[in-house]
């Protein structure tokens, strides 16, 4: 379970489009601490974990367990991770006018259909 902490921190930084240097400065650590945490699959001391969670505006429980406190079922967590991974793409797609958005959606749906046909 512990190895997930720094991976989730990095995922959250990418989602928020913030560099590791930003987080390091926010919480008072050397930027190499993040890389070492990833390599060693460690969890920081609780005071640092709380600072990181506050800086990223996420619950510390999420960074430790990968689940938001209010989620009771595993599929909710999977759905969240799927959405979270593509949230910026969805926002960009949603901001397009229908004349541009619809062909993109059609293309994705067609590619999905073709892949399903290939896997039959």
Notes on the protein architecture:
74% of the residues lie in helices and 0% in strands. The chain is mainly α. Helix 1 crosses helix 3. The longest helix is centred in the C-terminal third of the chain and has 22 residues, at 74-95. It is elongated, with a radius of gyration of 18 Å. The model has no long low-confidence stretch (mean pLDDT 85).
Specify the number of helices.
7
Instruction: Give the topology string: H per helix, E per strand.
Output: HHHHHHH
Q: Quick one: how many beta strands?
A: 0
Distance separating the two termini: 36 Å
Oligomer category: single chain
Keywords:
about 75% helix
Short characterization:
The chain has 120 residues and is mainly α. The protein has helices spanning 4-15, 20-27, 32-40, 46-56, 60-65, 74-95, 98-118.
């Amino acid at each position: 379970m512990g190895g997930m902490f720094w991976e989730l921190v990095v995922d959250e930084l990418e989602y928020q489009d913030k560099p590791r240097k930003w987080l390091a400065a926010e919480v008072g650590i050397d930027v190499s601490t993040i890389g070492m945490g990833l390599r060693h699959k460690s969890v920081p001391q609780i005071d640092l974990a709380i600072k990181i969670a506050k800086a990223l505006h996420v619950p510390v429980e999420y960074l430790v367990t990968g689940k938001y406190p209010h989620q009771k079922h595993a599929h909710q967590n999977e759905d969240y991770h799927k959405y979270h991974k593509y949230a910026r793409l969805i926002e960009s797609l949603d901001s397009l006018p229908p004349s541009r958005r619809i062909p993109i959606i059609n293309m994705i749906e067609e590619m999905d259909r073709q892949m399903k046909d290939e896997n039959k």
